[in-house]
Structure formats: C-alpha cells, structure tokens
Amino acid sequence: MFHASAGFSGSEPLRQRIAVIGSGVSGLSAAWLLAQTNDIVLYEADARLGGHANTVDVPGTGPVDTGFIVYNEQNYPNFSALMSHLSG
Ligand SMILES: Cc1cc2nc3c(=O)[nH]c(=O)nc-3n(C[C@H](O)[C@H](O)[C@H](O)COP(=O)(O)OP(=O)(O)OC[C@H]3O[C@@H](n4cnc5c(N)ncnc54)[C@H](O)[C@@H]3O)c2cc1C
C-alpha cells in the first residue's frame, strides 16, 4: 500500500480520500492526477510498482522493456504529453 498526498492552495475543494487499485500505468496516472487535490491510497498486489510495464535485466543482453514496445507521438498523444510533463 502506497500513500500519496500533494498540497493544494487556492480555493479549497473538498479533499477526498480515494483508493486506487493497481499500480500499472493506468493506476499510477490516476493516482498522480488525483493526488493534486485529494489524499490517495494506492493498493498494489505485487511487490513492485508498474504492472505490465517493467524493465528486466537479461544476462548478456542488458535491460529489456517488457511493457511498451511500440511508442510514437502520433498514436499516443496523451501518453506523450504525460511523459513530457513528468520529464519537465
Ligand atoms: C504483450 C504486450 C505488449 C504490449 N505492447 C505495448 C506497446 O508496444 N505499446 C503500448 O503503448 N502498450 C503496449 N501494451 C499495452 C500496455 O502495456 C498496457 O496497456 C498497460 O501497461 C496496461 O496498464 P494498466 O495499468 O491498465 O494495467 P497493468 O499494467 O496490468 O496494471 C495492473 C496492476 O494492478 C495490480 N492489481 C490487479 N488486481 C489487483 C488487486 N485486486 N489489488 C491490488 N492490485 C491489483 C496488478 O498487480 C498490476 O500491477 C502491451 C501489452 C502487452 C500485454
């Protein structure tokens, strides 16, 4: 279980305590967005975050991404925008 909370200033909407189930890209994106105005509890059944998205060290080859094989800005505009925002 992971807790995330982000401060909020300005007009004060009602902060809610919200449970997000699963830490794949869907859950992490929802938790990150909701944490701007709410208190989030993220539940993950696995021992690590990321869900299907993962990087595995293959001996003799190096790190291999198993989740996202195809990526381009034309077909993934929202995901691209999120990555750009997070990378500053
Ligand atoms: C073989 C393959 C290739 C792919 N290739 C691409 C690609 O090239 N490009 C691309 O954009 N996308 C690709 N995808 C799709 C992309 O990887 C998935 O759409 C994305 O990772 C799914 O994210 P998700 O958060 O919806 O689910 P997941 O990543 O599956 O995350 C779900 C999480 O919820 C957890 N969970 C489940 N039940 C519970 C519970 N009861 N309590 C707590 N935790 C729970 C799981 O442990 C997991 O961590 C591919 C998918 C597959 C299978």
Briefly summarize what is shown.
The protein has helices at 25-34, 77-86; strands spanning 2-5, 17-21, 39-43, 55-58, 62-65. The protein has 88 residues and is α+β, with helices and mostly antiparallel strands.
**Helical fraction:** 10-25%
C-alpha geometry: flat
Mean residue pLDDT: 89
**Rg, Cα atoms, Å:** 16 Å
- Count of individual beta strands: 5
**Distance between the ends:** 27 Å
Helical segment tally? 2
Q: Summarize the helix and strand pattern as letters.
A: EEHEEEH
Supply the number of structural domains: 2
Cofactors and ligands: flavin-adenine dinucleotide
Given the helix and strand composition, which structural class is it? alpha+beta
Low-confidence stretches: none
Report the sheet-strand fraction. 25-35%
Strand arrangement within the widest β-sheet reads: 1-3-2
The main pleated sheet reads as: 3 strands, mixed
